[in-house]
Amino acid sequence: MYVTNAGDNTVSVIDVRSMKTVTKIPVGKYPHGLRPSPDGKYVYVATIKGNSVSVIDAIKNTKIADIPVGEKPAQVAFSSDSKIAYVSLNGEDAVVKIDVEKKSVIGKVQVGIGPFQIFFTPDSKHVLVANQGTEQKPSTTVSIIDTGNFSVISTVETGKGSHGLVIDPSGQYAYVTNIYGNDVSVIDLLTNKIFAKVPTGNKPNGISFSSFASPVLSTPIIRLIIDGMKMKH
């Protein structure tokens, strides 16, 4: 398990079996979001005050590169084949595209105001980015990017301060935390429209998805875990 430590510019590597820290890896300034590549080779770390993505060799657990990307990179998303990484630039209202093998930026597209979390659909045909804005001027949208031509093809109104974002394994639903609206929007990706809104506690932030077989029901139950608060749908 890899954990960003924004206060000392490191990433902790934790052995999940023993629940002990194995090592700390120095990275760029103020590491924020991070993601492992699906092939297990790399961990990309967005350093929001360093304006770069730090590349960790996941076999040796050492930093091997810093890729300059732009102003305030917040989070990373990998394509399913691990060849392309996308990074949200909170300070530029944009998303950049990185060639993983070359470790260089190969494109940029403008999205909504103050983008944060970013997530690929399971088929890697689209990538979604939640546009938060600021508490004084919250943004209310999610931008949907077509990865084929690298352009925004749809903008969905979600709620005040769209921040956290996750897509279920089927690729049909996206779940978005609205940090200033105190709720979660559910987007039906077949129609790109809001399917439901779920009230939460104050300022929901990160969001994760887990599906499992219920001992009672034959269909999966979805659990969303939002800042330590569990909800069933």
Counting DSSP H or I runs of 4 or more residues, the number of helices is: 0
Kindly provide the radius of gyration, computed on alpha-carbon positions and rounded to a whole number of angstroms.
Answer: 17 Å
Run of helices and strands: EEEEEEEEEEEEEEEEEEEEEE
Mean pLDDT: 92
Shape: globular
Low-confidence sequence ranges: 225-233
Sheet of most strands = 4 strands, antiparallel
Could you explain the architecture of this structure?
This protein has 233 residues and is mostly beta strands. The chain has strands spanning 2-5, 10-15, 20-26, 31-36, 42-47, 52-57, 62-68, 73-78, 84-89, 94-99, 104-110, 115-120, 126-133, 138-146, 151-157, 162-167, 173-178, 183-188, 193-199, 207-212, 221-226, 229-232. The strands form six sheets. A four-stranded antiparallel sheet has the order 4-5-6-7, with no helix packed on it. It is globular and about 45 Å long. 40% of the residues are buried. Mean pLDDT is 92; it is low at 225-233.
Descriptive keywords:
233 residues; four-stranded antiparallel beta sheet; mainly beta
Summarize the structure.
The chain contains no helices and 22 strands. The chain has strands spanning 2-5, 10-15, 20-26, 31-36, 42-47, 52-57, 62-68, 73-78, 84-89, 94-99, 104-110, 115-120, 126-133, 138-146, 151-157, 162-167, 173-178, 183-188, 193-199, 207-212, 221-226, 229-232.
Topology, pairings included?
Elements lengths: L1 E4 L4 E6 L4 E7 L4 E6 L5 E6 L4 E6 L4 E7 L4 E6 L5 E6 L4 E6 L4 E7 L4 E6 L5 E8 L4 E9 L4 E7 L4 E6 L5 E6 L4 E6 L4 E7 L7 E6 L8 E6 L2 E4 L1
Antiparallel strand pairs: 1-2, 2-3, 4-5, 5-6, 6-7, 8-9, 9-10, 10-11, 12-13, 13-14, 14-15, 16-17, 17-18, 18-19, 20-21, 21-22
